[in-house]
Amino acid sequence: MPDYQFNGQNFDLKYPAIMGILNLTPDSFSDGGKFLEPEIAVNQALEMIQQGAQIIDIGGESTRPGSDPVSEEEELSRILPVLEKLPKDQFIISLDTTKPGVAKIGLEYGAHIINDVSGGNTQLLDLAQAYGAGFVLMHAKGSPKTMQEAPSYQNIIEEILSFFNQKKEDLSERKFPRIWIDPGIGFGKSLEHNITLMRNLREFKDDAWGILLGSSRKSWIDHLCNVPKTENRLGGSIASALAAIPQGVEIIRVHDVQETIQAISVAKELALFE
């Protein structure tokens, strides 16, 4: 059970760790608009922790395919009323942002991890180091607005591994409690690309980082199984989590905390993995 200090707070992380998703946006692909009221959002975070999540990932800007960016002021207006009400010493708070200004204020309010879907912004890396925060570095091809317009790779595993390896110099120049990489399921990838990534997550294992998977409720499950309603993609989401854990993934980012943890517990008892 690794012991980390994130932004001045000590935490034990038991792997695989579940990261509960808390979208504070009106337009996120799965639960947009459900948690706009701060009290409702805080209660949702606490409920996910009670269900067994160790990390809550707070986002104030949608990065779904086709989405438009919001201003720094708008993003802060969504996250700060929630962030200031959450306890900072009971569980890990991750801030899903690509904006250095948002990250800095979020860290001042006590966030412990920066989750950067833009692929390792050096200003965000500098801020994470300055505050002793953890960092999630995700691969994406293109911006959320255009990333699903005919994404193309010659060899997706080699190209994404090369992307992360090129980031090693930026990472090695800085000190972090822990770095995780996220291959970016659904971010500039076709169905075939996503399935190839899911089958080969172990290829990304490295002493320099852990692996985070965010596949919950994403459209690749719809394309594979014909389930257009996001709330009906629980089975595919759980299957992807169970496929990821034996490959060494440390963090599973999910909407459905209780159901995912239940599935993992049963899978362990059935010796599908340790």
User: Number of DSSP helices?
Assistant: 9
**Which percent range describes the beta-strand content?**
15-25%
Query: Number of folding domains?
Result: 1
Largest sheet: 8 strands, parallel, barrel
* Residues in helix, %: 25-40%
Q: Count the beta strands.
A: 10
Q: How are strands sequenced across the largest beta sheet? A: 3-4-5-6-7-8-9-10
The CATH architecture can be named as: Alpha-Beta Barrel
CATH topology: TIM Barrel
The CATH superfamily bears the name Dihydropteroate synthase-like
Task: Report the end-to-end length measured between terminal Cα atoms.
Answer: 14 Å
Classified by CATH, the class is Alpha Beta
Let me know the average pLDDT: 93
Q: Ranges with pLDDT <50 over ≥5 residues?
A: none
List the helices and strands and how they pair.
Blueprint: E1 3-6, E2 9-12, E3 17-23, H1 38-51, E4 55-59, H2 72-83, E5 92-96, H3 100-108, E6 113-116, H4 122-131, E7 134-138, H5 156-172, E8 179-182, H6 191-199, E9 210-213, H7 219-225, H8 234-244, E10 251-254, H9 257-269
Parallel strand pairs: 3-4, 3-10, 4-5, 5-6, 6-7, 7-8, 8-9, 9-10
Antiparallel strand pairs: 1-2
Helix pairs in contact: 1-2, 2-3, 3-4, 8-9
